[in-house]
Structure to design on (433 residues):
């Protein structure tokens, strides 16, 4: 592939998106560059503070519980107050609570602030997703969600490496650094990102009138959407095993933490390297087929881990399920927008985000119970079964789903001379009329 071809591909990937999206994208990248707490909280509590592993697990669970609750609250706020005010409140609250958490030493205070940090940091996600759906045309949404996911993983990869060095110097510096970067995100939102909440026009699949109010009860009664949320939970449950089940299984097989680090690093490297080109390949393909295939590949990717006996094989299995993750994430986000009424996007995105937060709570319990009782091989077999169930679920739920413009490739053909003449005649007739 020539350099000119690569340049053209890169230009087509980033062109055509509105400036507000890129400011939102920048805010996401900066936010993930400061991702210190979620990555190093366990080490901070056990090594720096001297607490037990069980206490660290409790704090992590409270952090996740805060995220579950705020997913719903953030969605409601995004619809009622607006996307921009919700982002500002969430990011300012995150900045303050993270800084306070770094100064806490009493176990009860640390646990309480961890809950607050989890709630504050997760409250912005429904607003971000809803705002992207508001400002990006339907045909570009898969590409936009993919670019945003790419920014999340790029920021996480950089922050993980940099935060490790910061932690060796001072954990408090890490907390304060995350607080500062989150404050920068709030400033970007305040200065550069306008409010995007629609005036209440119904979405493509919504039968509601514009003036009808969308409540959480209405979202929970939306059978097809809640089915998709349930499938999203199953997919998240599979992917979470890469961070909770995989390190435990590799440790039981005699591998070190650095060995696990090498294997899981493949995930971030592949996402950064392949997210954009893969999205170009799948952008105009049928999302129904993509979700079915990605669910099955994710399940069997983890299922193959049962046969891993070296770092190379473990890394190979990570490659398989990472490809499924690259496809599933932007397409799933686009599907949520497709099923959401425009004036209820915040609540719908909040419920969708909650599925991942709940999975983050359930996955450690699931992996620990299965590995202790039956062995890691049964965990990987269960992942394969869950992937098959999710694929079947997508096939059942999305039969009859109309195709949105986001999956229809726009025509690149130039209009003929006759077509141009017809357009001119039609325009002249309108002027005369």
């Amino acid at each position: 592939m020539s350099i000119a071809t690569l340049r053209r591909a890169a230009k087509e990937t980033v062109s055509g998106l509105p400036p507000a999206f890129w400011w939102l994208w920048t805010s996401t990248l900066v936010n993930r560059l400061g991702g210190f707490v979620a990555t190093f909280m366990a080490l901070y509590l056990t090594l720096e503070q001297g607490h037990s592993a069980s206490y660290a697990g409790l704090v992590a669970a409270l952090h996740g519980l805060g995220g579950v609750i705020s997913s719903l609250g953030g969605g409601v706020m995004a619809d009622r107050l607006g996307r921009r005010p919700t982002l500002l409140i969430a990011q300012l609250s995150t900045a303050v609570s993270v800084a306070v958490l770094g100064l806490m030493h009493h176990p009860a205070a640390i646990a309480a602030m961890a809950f607050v940090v989890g709630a504050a940091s997760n409250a912005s996600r429904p607003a971000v997703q809803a705002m992207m759906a508001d400002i990006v045309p339907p045909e570009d949404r898969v590409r936009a969600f993919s670019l945003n996911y790419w920014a999340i993983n790029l920021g996480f990869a950089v922050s993980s490496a940099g935060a490790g060095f910061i932690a060796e110097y001072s954990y408090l510096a890490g907390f304060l650094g995350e607080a500062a970067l989150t404050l920068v995100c709030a400033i970007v939102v305040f200065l550069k990102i306008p409010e995007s909440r629609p005036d209440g026009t119904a979405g493509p699949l919504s039968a509601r009138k514009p003036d009808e109010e969308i409540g959480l009860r209405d979202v929970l009664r939306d059978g097809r959407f809640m089915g998709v949320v349930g499938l999203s939970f199953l997919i998240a449950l599979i992917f979470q095993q890469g961070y909770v089940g995989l390190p435990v299984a590799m440790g039981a097989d005699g591998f070190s933490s650095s060995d696990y680090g090498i294997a899981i690093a493949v995930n971030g490297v592949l996402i950064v390297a392949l997210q954009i080109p893969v999205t170009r390949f799948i952008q105009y393909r049928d999302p129904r087929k993509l979700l079915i295939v990605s669910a099955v590949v994710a399940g069997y990717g983890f299922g193959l881990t049962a046969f891993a006996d070296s770092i190379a094989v473990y890394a190979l299995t990570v490659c398989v399920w990472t490809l499924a993750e690259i496809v599933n994430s932007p397409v799933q986000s686009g599907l949520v927008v497709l099923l959401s009424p425009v004036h209820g996007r915040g609540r719908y995105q909040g419920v969708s985000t909650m599925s991942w937060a709940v999975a983050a709570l359930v996955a450690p319990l699931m992996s620990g119970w299965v590995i202790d009782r039956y062995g890691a091989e049964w965990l990987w077999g269960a992942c394969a079964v869950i992937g098959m169930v999710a694929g079947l679920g997508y096939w059942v739920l999305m039969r009859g789903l109309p195709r949105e413009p986001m999956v229809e490739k726009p025509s690149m053909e130039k209009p003929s001379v006759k077509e141009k003449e017809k357009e001119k005649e039609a325009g002249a007739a309108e002027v005369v009329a």
Observations:
- The chain has two domains: 17-193, 214-410.
- The chain has a mean pLDDT of 81.
- The chain has 18 helices and no strands.
- The domain at 17-193 is CATH 1.20.1250.20 (Growth Hormone; Chain: A;).
